[in-house]
Write a structure and sequence with these properties.
The complex is a heterodimer. Chain A is mostly helical. Chain A has 20 helices and two strands. In chain A, strands 1-2 form a two-stranded antiparallel sheet. Chain A starts with 7 loop residues before the first helix and ends in a 17-residue tail after the last strand. In chain B, helix 1 packs parallel to helix 5, helix 2 packs antiparallel against helix 5 and helix 4 packs antiparallel against helix 5. Chain B is elongated, with a radius of gyration of 21 Å. Classes of the chains: A mainly alpha, B mainly alpha. The site of protoporphyrin IX containing FE has 25 residues of chain A, from helix 6, helix 7, helix 18 and helix 20.
């Protein structure tokens, strides 16, 4: 491993007498994942001990068999220890004595991925691995669920364990794997796409990643505490009655909420301020629009989740009664707060997916993006409207019946901008000579799946239908079609498309095709039967079902196992293409006009030698006399624009 | 501010100027976005307050119109507003080039903010109700937690801005802070963003004070 001192700019640093920050010094005697883990363990032990010392004699704790104060303090100081260990608190503490930020140098070699890095490309790759890890664990839990549902009479798990597995699966998938999908691609690509050399707040960016990893551990710490039985939605009053695992859930939500706010905040500010000269709003790539809309939702909707988590923790620790109806609180308060965040959250997941698709489509159809402005407006429209629909989750519980038509209307309204975004894709593909490369196949699958997910959503917004199918497998299938069928397929498309730029290696096409077809076919075979199962009356979160549904359930389970296997093919492809049989990626393997493809591969630390001057949007494919997209500075021939929109 | 030279490449003067503008713009828009974010956080508390108040489950919203100790409430309220006024006045004087005035106003604001913080914590030890005894009691505890958070952020921001002003002043001379030097511009943008937040904290503090002590 080469050290920081071997790089030219570090030599300059060394000459100026400035030491690299502790997070970026070589060797074990610095700050990295190891010290973070040690910090977390020590912090947890101190917090738990402190909590016990303070409160074990309190009457409501003494004989209860659980001490939520000790558990909460343990987790809280555990997270503080983690942040101290990784180096996240170095700068805030140094600020107290008026220090300037330390230099943004970065150690070289693989060990940088285990450190508090302020380079957006390192953070992007950290996020890729993080999100894949979250998905993998959530996926294993899904396999456990489908194993249990193989038979209504022979059981692998107790009903109690089953609901805890379902809850962890839902929480990890929703809160960790998909809600932060802006993390990997957004952090890596946004600066490159807008022609910037950096993020606005690199330390906040790094914080968002590392606090997320802490959130992952907190959510999983529920398992040794006995899990939580509420599903990912954590509804009270079950929340109030549940055991100590609930503390991990509530605290985990607050921690993850911090990460989401930090991520959204930094990305939004970067897009607003760091666009290269000439990158006007009408030239901003559609992916960046989607990330901006998502970042707005992350920053504005997540504080409610944070507040809801804090209220829940207060109920459990200092015995307030926010969610306890008998004491002047209300269980519906949680439901409102949760869904006020929860519905925008759905678009936090959906919008980046459509942004990825919008970026990939023109490249593989060699056509300009159809109705670009409508697409961008649709994304902003969706993010605004998403704040006004949350009550449709409460059609069955907690809503004043007179309010139902209003929220039915707002929900149906939101399908209009969503429809626009969809039509942008259809219009781009219309009459195109499509290149069926892997990213394109995944994008086409997204449109197929999302059509099914979206249309069933329109049905569900209708109160009478909702009343009939609520709480069953129909709803379950609907949201798997939108989130997994939509976002996850888009994410895969994005990975196949951009990994060559991020890693400098091409993904193997043949293995990729195996991955695609198994994932696409078996996704549909897993989830389509669930619509029928739902209409036939199978409820969610129950470990058994009517005997006559076994055939369909078995079919779905076996398909799910193959679907799970398709992810192993993807992981195999990653290992194969990156390590076993690496094929160097050209700078621009897909002949894209996007700014991110005009840099060298691997991308230099500073992204661009000269800050580019943007001259047009990047979608002028196959146009005669297409305008140049950007002037990249002296490295391109002086009077010849650097990028031509003419067919490449 | 660390410049991009740290990353091992050089910028043309135009690029350096462009990045400085972007940096200052980020502090400006980041400050406003942070206020937006915080508004949604406080709005969740306000929603909880009015939701439970209108539900009045088991007639337990606020039995006997019980109220948290008003003298503490007034003291915290006045200290928070004083912090806001000091920060805003200091910022005005700084714009007029009076750095020392800003520093004096800043230290005063920090003192009042810390006093508010201590009182807000201390009040919890003398509440006339049990946290879970009513809807009001619960939301009041929520308010206290959020207010403590706001005051910690305010104090931290004030202290770090002051500490930086002293350090930069020592290292480069007082006037450097009023110059067009990149670090000075960055510091002034930070002070401006902080002033907005402190002003916002004072306004929202006044609103919440009215909700919990007067309504
Ligand atoms: C291999 C892929 C997957 C399979 C086979 C699968 C299967 C299932 C099943 C059968 C349930 C319902 C269990 C029950 O209610 O009894 C469930 C619940 C759920 N799944 Fe998945 N799932 C998969 C991937 C995903 C993904 C990618 C997401 C991402 C958002 C997700 C989110 C959820 C959520 C939120 C729940 C509801 C949990 C709750 O009721 O609280 N799943 N999944």
């Amino acid at each position: 491993m080469s050290t920081v001192h071997e790089r030219p700019h570090d030599i300059a640093l060394a000459a100026s007498g400035t030491k690299p920050p502790l997070t970026q010094r070589p060797g074990l005697l610095s700050q990295h994942l190891g010290t973070a883990l040690v910090g977390a363990i020590i912090g947890y032990a101190i917090g738990h001990w402190l909590g016990n010392t303070i409160s074990s004699h309190y009457p409501y704790i003494a004989n209860s068999g659980q001490n939520a104060i000790a558990d909460t303090l343990g987790l809280m100081l555990g997270v503080v220890g983690w942040l101290l260990g990784i180096g996240a608190l170095n700068y805030p503490l140094a600020k107290l004595v008026g220090r300037q930020p330390s230099s943004e140098v970065e150690i070289q070699g693989w060990s940088k991925y285990f450190r508090y890095s302020t380079n957006h490309k390192t953070v992007g790759l950290q996020y890729v691995v993080g999100v894949l890890l979250f998905m993998f664990t959530g996926g294993l839990l899904a396999m456990a669920i489908r194993t249990e549902l193989l038979s209504p009479t022979t059981h692998v798990f107790s009903p109690d364990t089953y609901i805890k597995i379902v809850s962890e699966h839902g929480t990890v998938m929703m809160m960790m794997a998909t809600s932060i999908v802006v993390g990997p691609l957004g952090n890596y690509l946004v600066p490159l796409m807008i022609g910037s050399r950096r993020m606005a707040f690199p330390r906040i960016e790094a914080f968002s990643f590392w606090i997320f990893v802490a959130g992952y551990m907190v959510i999983f710490s529920a398992m040794p505490f006995g899990g939580f039985p509420t599903g990912w939605t954590g509804y009270a009053p079950l929340q109030t009655q549940a055991g100590p695992g609930m503390v991990s859930y509530l605290f985990g939500f607050a921690v993850i909420g911090l990460g989401m706010m930090a991520a959204g905040f930094n990305i939004a500010v970067t897009i607003i301020n760091y666009r290269a000269p000439g990158m006007t709003w009408s030239r901003v790539p559609i992916f960046v629009w989607s990330i901006l809309a998502t970042a707005a939702l992350l920053t504005l909707a997540t504080p409610t989740l944070f507040a809801a988590g804090v209220f829940g923790l207060l109920d459990r620790t200092v015995q307030t009664a926010f969610y306890v109806t008998e004491h002047g609180g209300s269980s519906y308060l949680w439901e409102n707060l949760f869904w006020f965040f929860g519905h925008p959250e759905v678009y936090i997941m959906a919008l980046p997916g459509f942004g990825i698709a919008g970026e990939i489509l023109p490249v593989f159809t060699r056509k300009p993006l159809f109705a670009y402005k409508v697409g961008a407006a649709g994304m902003i429209g969706v993010s605004l409207l998403s704040f006004f629909v949350w009550q449709h989750h409460l059609f069955q519980s907690g809503i004043n019946p007179d309010m139902r038509p209003l929220f039915m209307l707002t929900t149906e309204l939101i399908s209009i901008p969503t429809g626009f975004i969809y039509l942008v894709g259809m219009g781009t593909m219309y009459k195109a000579k499509i290149r069926f490369d892997l990213p394109m196949l995944f994008v086409m699958a997204l449109y197929f799946n999302f059509l099914i997910g979206g249309v069933t959503g329109v049905f569900l917004s209708d109160v009478p239908v909702n009343v009939t199918v609520h709480g069953g497998f129909f709803v379950l299938s609907h949201f798997h079609y939108t989130i997994m069928g939509g976002l996850l397929f888009a994410f895969m498309a994005g990975l196949y498309y951009w990994l060559p730029k991020m890693t400098g290696r091409m993904m193997n096409r043949r293995i990729g095709l195996w991955h695609f077809w198994t994932m696409f076919i078996f996704f549909n075979l897993t989830f389509f039967p669930m619509f029928i199962i739902g209409l036939l009356g199978q409820p969610r979160r129950v470990f058994t079902y009517a005997k006559n549904l076994q055939g369909l359930n078995d079919f779905s389970s076996i398909s799910a196992f193959v679907l799970g296997f398709s992810f192993l093919i993807f992981f195999f492809n990653l290992v194969w293409s990156l390590y076993i049989n690496p094929v160097k990626a050209p700078d621009n393997p897909w002949d894209s006009l996007g700014l991110e493809w005009q840099t060298a591969t691997p991308v230099p630390a500073h992204n661009f030698d000269r800050i580019p001057v943007v001259l047009a949007d990047p979608y002028h494919y196959s146009e005669v006399n297409a305008p140049a997209v950007a002037d990249l500075g002296p490295s391109s021939p002086p009077d010849e624009p650097s990028l031509s929109g003419a067919p490449v | 501010m660390k410049t991009i030279q740290d990353q091992g490449y050089t910028s043309t003067p135009e690029e350096a100027e462009f990045e400085l503008r972007a940096h200052i713009g980020s502090i400006w828009s980041g400050g406003r976005l942070f206020i937006g974010m915080y508004t949604f956080l406080l709005a969740s508390l306000v929603f909880a307050y009015f939701y439970l108040r209108s539900a009045n489950n088991g007639l337990l919203w606020r039995p006997d119109h019980i109220t948290a100790p008003t003298h503490y409430g007034w003291a915290v309220f006045l200290a928070t507003v004083a912090t806001g006024i000091m920060a805003v006045t200091g910022q005005r004087r700084l714009r007029g080039g009076a750095l020392i005035d800003w520093q004096v106003a800043g230290w005063t604001a920090l003192t009042t903010s810390v006093i508010a913080l201590i009182l807000q914590i201390w009040e919890l030890s003398s509440l006339p109700f049990y946290p879970g005894s009513s809807g009001y009691a619960s939301t009041f505890i929520g308010f206290s937690v959020f207010n403590i958070m706001t005051l910690v952020i305010t104090s931290f921001w004030l202290e770090t801005a002051l500490a930086r002003s002293h350090r930069l002043g020592r290292e480069r001379g007082r006037n450097a802070l009023l110059s067009t030097d990149a670090d000075a511009q960055s510091w002034r943008a930070n002070v401006s963003a902080m002033t907005y937040f402190v002003g916002f904290a004072a306004l929202s503090g006044a609103f919440l004070f009215a909700m919990f002590y007067q309504l």
